[in-house]
Specification:
abc type-2 transporter like fold; five-stranded mixed sheet; alpha/beta; about 65% helix; 5 strands
Length: about 375
């Protein structure tokens, strides 16, 4: 009698839990739809191949031979042409401003030197903030011109009365991270992800906990306007967010030798705009959640794709074009760009105008929408 009774009780509890979950649309989305959607998106996003590196070309020779070398160098799409520049200063500026990750400089008299068997040197300027991308870009240029040099040498040896085989060398110049160390590139991205986790999850679960315990309703009976209630609850998280950023930057600088080259007020502005977004997302999740469990799962469902589509772990250029456009809506991508640009490249307000503007638009829209929804749920 004991075992049949236990089976009946187990079956009853099982049916009750299934019915409860099925009736909860939020939970059904988290359990069924969300994994399928994330698997499809992450399958496209998780691509560690480095290609389509934006490259500007300075052709100082301006001959058919030099133009042919530039065209064939970019033919395999490892490097993609981001434009032509008139001089070395413009080439370095394009790399400094982030408009290009590499600049190939073809010297004057390149065609004449190769034809005469004289040594020639091709220079490539590379943004070294991303060690993996820098290695691939430098390797692509060195590999192509190394093959050209070998071919010219074979042709020179095979021809009768040929002069000495042409010597073609590649001289790389690495900006910002000449040793190609990984921590200076990864630490700013990690800081962006950690700040997202702390502010979003804590905000979402904190407000959901108050609603679940009934303390939020007790505060509402006091003569305080909802806008001041919301401001008072968000302000401490802004302070903690700034403290976290200061600690992470200090730890990165002293422990991992991450340079601090840019103006800190620009970094502070980017942090404020970023916190506006992350706190807005946490507020939105809390307003759509009935329990702390739902708030935690909702935060997790936002944080995981935000991290994977940020470009911190996988290159955005390797993603499909449609997914690259989706990443423009990801605040983590823009804040990581601000952190890396300010700390590693010494970028200022003008250089980081686009990611800062994107953070301002995203932060304002998300926070206003979340505040309106939160106020509606309070009523």
């Amino acid at each position: 009698m004991t075992r049949p009774l236990a089976r009946i009780q187990l079956a009853a509890v099982f049916r009750k839990e299934v019915r409860q979950v099925v009736r909860d649309r939020r939970m059904m989305f988290i359990l069924i739809a969300a994994p399928v959607i994330q698997t499809m998106v992450f399958g496209f996003a998780m691509n560690f191949d480095v290609d389509r590196v934006r490259t500007v070309v300075l052709d100082r020779d301006r001959t058919d031979v030099s133009r042919g070398h530039a065209r064939r160098l970019l033919a395999d799409r490892t490097l993609v042409r981001a434009g032509d520049v008139p001089g070395p200063a413009e080439a370095e500026q394009a790399v400094h401003q982030g408009a290009a990750a590499a600049a190939v400089i073809l010297p004057e008299r390149l065609a004449a030197d190769l034809a005469a068997g004289r040594p020639a040197e091709v220079q490539v300027v590379i943004d070294g903030t991303d060690p993996n991308r820098s290695t691939v870009a430098a390797g692509a240029v060195a590999r192509y011109f190394g093959e050209v040099g070998e071919r010219l040498a074979r042709e020179g040896l095979a021809a009768r009365g040929a002069r000495a085989p042409a010597q073609l060398e590649v001289a790389p110049r690495l900006f910002y991270n000449p040793e190609l160390r990984t921590p200076p590139y990864m630490i700013p991205g990690i800081a962006a992800m950690l700040l997202l986790v702390v502010t979003t999850i804590v905000t979402a679960m904190g407000l959901a906990r108050e609603r679940e315990m009934g303390t939020l309703e007790q505060v509402l009976v006091t003569p305080i306007r909802p806008v001041w209630l919301l401001a008072g609850k968000m302000a401490p998280y802004v302070v903690f967010g700034f403290v976290d950023v200061l600690l992470l930057v200090a730890a990165g600088s002293f422990v991992f030798d991450v340079p601090i080259r840019g103006p800190l007020p620009v970094l502070a502005l980017g942090t404020v705009l970023y916190l506006l977004t992350t706190l807005g997302v946490g507020l939105f999740i809390s307003s759509a959640s009935r329990t702390q469990q739902q708030a935690f799962l909702g935060g997790f469902l936002f944080i995981l794709p935000a991290m994977l589509l940020s470009g911190v772990m996988t290159p955005i250029a390797a993603m499909p074009r449609w997914l690259q456009l989706v990443t423009q809506l990801n605040p983590v991508r823009h804040y990581a760009t601000v952190m890396r640009g300010c700390l590693l490249r010494g970028a200022g307000l003008v250089d980081l105008a686009w990611p800062l503007a994107a953070l301002a638009v995203l932060g304002s829209a998300i926070f206003v929408a979340s505040a309106l929804r939160f106020r509606k749920t309070l009523g």
